[in-house]
Amino acid sequence: MTVIDANPAPKAYVDRRQARSAWSLTAPALALMVLILLVPVLVALVLSFSNYSLGNSGFDWVGTQNYERLFTRSTYEKMFIATFTYVVTVVPISVGLGLGAALLVHSLGRIGDIYKTIYFLPVMATLLAMAIAWEFMLHPTIGMVNRTLEGACGTWFEAVPFFANGCAEGFPLWLGDRDYAIWVVCFIGIWQGFGFNMVLYLAGLTSVHRELYHAAEMDGAKSAWERFRLVTWPALGPTTVFVVTISCIRAFQVFDTIEAFWPQGGGPNKSAYVMMFAIFEKGIQQNLIGIGSAITMLFLLFVMFLTLIQRWLVERKVHY
Amino acid sequence: MTRDWWKHMVLILGTIIVLAPFYMMVSYSFKSPGEIDQGVGGFFGRQEQMIDPRCVALRQPDRADIEAARDRFAGQDDSGVQAALLAETEAACSMRPVVFNYSKAFTEAPLMRYLLNGVIVTVSIFLIQIVVALPAAYALAKLKFWGREAVFGLVLFCLLIPVHAIALPLYIMLAKLGLTNTYAALVVPWTISVFGIFLMRQFFMTVPDDLIDAARMDGMSELAIVWRVMLPTAIPALLAFAIFSIVAHWNDYFWPRIVVTGNRDLFTPPLGLREFKGDGDGSFFGPMMATATVIVTPLIVAFLIAQRRFIEGITLSGMK
């Protein structure tokens, strides 16, 4: 007590000095955060109400015209359809496969680690390079996929309509066929992402207490399914929330595969014209910055909304 | 084992699909164009001597060559000498397909330069991220100052903004500053890692205050404490973050695609591969797959050597 009374000035002095150094330590980060993250969001917001182009001296305010276009033009309708098809397909399947693989790998113990390593490879590999590899695999005539499928011709596989059709008239062009294009891109997205989800689930599984399983068994949960439903799934709740959010955000950002397959136009009949590609094409290649900014704002809105839902769920400490 | 056989079956099926494009990529990088076209030769190809047609076309013997070589083939007429020279050229231009593919990968495009650019960009991004993020993280974790909550709130808000999403306004700002097609454009947007600040703050919270107080007693400035006391304690977390950052930026295609147009000297490995794909014809499948293999290999090898660390690093975002 007396010590504090005796030295009021030095303590205040120390506090002030600490505050000063704290500000100087955070200053560079703070400045960059504002310049690189916040200012661009504002720039995009402002420009989305204009018809600005790089190189033009002036621009006009066009009100909400850019946004109106987004919701009326058929190109953008295709953009939304492609983006949501991709997200709605890739997220549940890659999360489901991730969980499935994690459960299998986990139950195998140490031998399972080899699968873990293999399934994680696509996460590490440069996606653009792998997209090109997939493009060769899916090449209509010399690709491995169609060659393998042709190998099934003349066997009982021909009973399946898909094979019967393929053997008679040739197998699909995959990337050149508008009925298949977006699904192929989805497939590659799943191929690339499920290993990541698996690893996150594996981390979640190691933290589930053994006793919980014993307790569940005592309570009559005899089958593996019952144990999963009553113990594993609820315990993995927080992991699931996180895995779903991060998969969604990554899925929204799909670009590399689309650009590698169709540098012009985003797929046959624009069937794979996703938002990131639209921002790239409209905003950067065609210099239509107003409309590009409007898509950017919409994109940010989706992503922020998703993350906020996740944070809200985590804060409620979901165990559903 | 017998009980688990179905699990292995399922996981092995997955393994085949996961590894197929890697298998094809490496295999094509070994094969001759003919073997790729016909889909023969197994994994390594037959590795028969092949003649590089472009090399022969470039070294077609002309009049002067025939005159110069007349002494060596004494007693032959012009066409005889020409035929002998042609045979020599073909011998000089023939090589194993694997040598052809990999030498073409490095000579057709400045692949070495691309790889070097990749290293320069990823390493500078990482170093700057650390220089900016560590002091801020330390201040947020260990220093008391007015406004700390606000700064941390800003960090949490900025976590919502993916840099790829604001690529368009960032591009406009860089273009206005005349910075497109520079190393700066490749590095600057990534210099602030809000995630890095958040992660390191969480880590620094666990460092005991006594350690810092002792350093202060010794008369260290706050900045010196960051680098000489906090940094050494943070090595494991930093290593994980390094992997996270380096993998992301080595593999990144979207951002370099936007800010680097045409200037090959600045191409990062994915851009170089993309360029290769753009101007290659069918006979370039081999060299192109060799390029892809060269680009993908460093990270894959590093991953196989230090799996645990890599999985920790890549799934870092799971620690949120």
Q: How would you sum up this structure, described in words?
A:
The complex is a heterodimer of chains A (320) and B (320). Chain A is mainly alpha-helical. Helices cover 74% and strands 0% of the residues of chain A. Chain A is flat, with a radius of gyration of 26 Å. Chain B is mainly α and 320 residues long. Chain B has helices at residues 5-30, 33-38, 53-58, 63-69, 78-92, 97-108, 111-142, 148-158, 167-176, 183-187, 194-205, 209-217, 222-233, 235-251, 254-259, 269-279, 285-305, 307-314, and strands at residues 50-51, 94-95. Chain B has a two-stranded antiparallel ribbon. Classes of the chains: A mainly alpha (320), B mainly alpha (320). At the A-B interface, α2, α4, α5, α6 and α9 of A face α1, α7, α8, α9 and α13 of B.
Averaging pLDDT over every residue of chain B, what do you get? 85
Topology, number of strands of chain B: 2
* Percent of sequence in beta strands of chain B: under 5%
Report the average pLDDT across residues of chain A. Answer: 85
Give the overall form of chain A.
flat
- For the largest interface in this structure, which chains are involved and how many residues does each contribute? A-B, 84 and 94 residues
- Extract low-pLDDT stretches of chain B: none
Are there runs of chain A of 5+ residues with pLDDT below 50, and where? Answer: 1-8
- Helical run tally of chain A: 15
Number of helices, where a helix is a run of at least 4 consecutive DSSP H or I residues of chain B: 18
Which of globular, elongated, flat, extended, rod-shaped describes the shape of chain B?
elongated
Instruction: Tell me the major beta sheet of chain B.
Output: 2 strands, antiparallel
Oligomer designation: heterodimer
Largest beta-sheet characterization of chain A:
none
Q: Radius of gyration of chain B, Cα only, in angstroms?
A: 28 Å
The proportion of residues in beta strands of chain A is under 5%
Structural class by SSE content of chain A = mainly alpha
